[in-house]
Design brief:
With 392 residues, this protein is of the alpha/beta class. It is 30% helix and 21% strand. α1 crosses α2, α2 crosses α3 and α7 packs across α8. It comes from Streptomyces sirii.
Length: 392
């Protein structure tokens, strides 16, 4: 699909105000920080104060969170006073801390089986999350309003009623450089979406002959399938124009049986598309926790200043020290619409201190090791235990 070029106004960097400045001044101050990876005692004090504000906000507005917090007060202290909620909770329950008429956006998770999470965002929540992404892109030099690019999106072609979080994310990432052309790898068929390998290969070959950089965004599985199809077709390697960028996200979803390691994927991208490793970045995020985690140039997922990352035991849910694998636990005070300021994900991860990465970022970083609950007939705990056994 070819679209006309559009101007880039970077609306996601524009100021946005919390719903109640009198009640949430520290949340505002934290989310207004412009350096995504600044850290130190001042930032830690500010984060703790912002978490206290958002906990009070949800306790006053959400009977669910108020009850959860009251029970937690009788138990062990949680990081920043926020009892965690498992991401699966949002697959079966709609809990709002705002009137429904203040919902600006409704997104769902992109899971391929089972019930999907239903998440609701007010203007502040979604705009502040978008601004976080924009700050990280700005820091990396990826906002280029004067440089057109061609986009290949490994995500869902727009269709009526489509509200998947991954599609929303990939489309707003197109705001950071004006589009000459946009091609979707997952085409709308009228009754769903299908991967179009031949159209995708044709787009890459056409883009390689153009004089502007290419930006490839979306699911890594389908990028891998494209590279495999090119090899099967006997096509020679391409050399995408200088300045091309690949930002992956969304995981392998229903294709975990064919998943390969990131190092192998990145090497094949460089070999077949000519994009250097430092211009290939994976990301982590979810509709339940929209704070962006984007790889540094050494491919580590560092926590930005607006969040804190923990790893919890798969047996006891107690926080674990650095290096020990467990459930990924993400905390941030940015969200006012839903009491999801402390979410335990279904992903297994290991956390490391910032000093263990050779890049210039000092914040902790984590490695995603896999996902618990890979089958409808196996619980998260069983799947997690099996994966953890394989890692020991």
């Amino acid at each position: 699909m070819t679209v006309s070029s559009f101007p880039v106004a970077n609306p996601h960097l524009a100021p946005v105000e919390v719903p109640d400045p009198a009640l949430l001044p520290r949340v505002q101050e934290l989310c207004d920080l412009t350096d995504p990876y600044t850290c130190g005692p001042r930032q830690e004090e500010l984060f703790a104060a912002a978490m206290a504000e958002i906990n009070a906000w949800h306790a006053d507005r959400s009977p669910f969170f108020r009850s959860l917090a009251e029970r937690a007060d009788r138990g062990a202290a949680e990081p920043y006073g926020a009892p965690p909620v498992h991401a699966n909770f949002f697959k079966r329950h709609e809990v709002l801390s705002i009137p429904r008429e203040e919902v600006e956006l409704h997104l769902t998770s992109s899971g391929t089986t089972g019930q999907k999470s239903q998440m609701f965002f007010d203007r502040w929540t979604i705009r502040s999350a978008q601004r976080m992404v924009a700050r990280i892109f700005e820091r990396n030099g990826w906002i280029t309003p004067d440089q057109e690019v061609n986009y290949l999106l490994y995500s869902y072609e727009p269709a009526p009623g489509l509200n998947l979080g991954t599609a929303f994310t990939d489309n707003y990432l197109c705001d950071f450089a004006p589009a000459r052309q946009v091609e979707y790898a997952l085409r709308h068929t009228g009754s769903g979406h299908e991967f179009d390998p031949f159209g995708t290969v044709a787009a890459l070959r056409r883009f390689a002959q153009d004089d502007v950089p290419v930006r490839i965004l979306g699911f890594p599985a389908f990028l891998w399938f494209t590279l495999e199809r090119m090899r099967a077709m006997g096509l020679p390697p391409l050399s995408l124009p200088e300045g091309s960028l690949i930002v992956l996200g969304g995981g392998w979803k229903g294709h975990t049986d064919r998943q390969i390691g990131k190092e192998e994927l990145y090497a094949r991208v460089t070999e077949q598309l000519g994009v250097p490793s430092e211009r290939i970045r994976d990301t982590f995020g979810s509709v339940e926790h929209c704070v962006p985690y984007i790889e540094c140039d050494h491919h580590r997922l560092h926590a930005p200043v607006w969040s804190r990352v923990f790893v919890r035991s798969t047996r006891t849910l107690e926080p674990l020290p650095h290096g020990e694998p467990g459930f990924l636990h993400l905390v941030s005070p940015y969200i006012t619409s839903v009491p999801a300021q402390s979410v335990v994900m279904g992903d297994l991860a290991a956390l490391q201190p910032g000093r263990e990465c050779p890049c210039d970022l000092e914040t902790p970083w984590f490695t995603v090791l896999g996902r618990a609950g890979v089958s409808r007939n196996r619980s998260c705990a069983v799947a997690a235990a099996e994966l953890m056994k394989g890692l020991s």
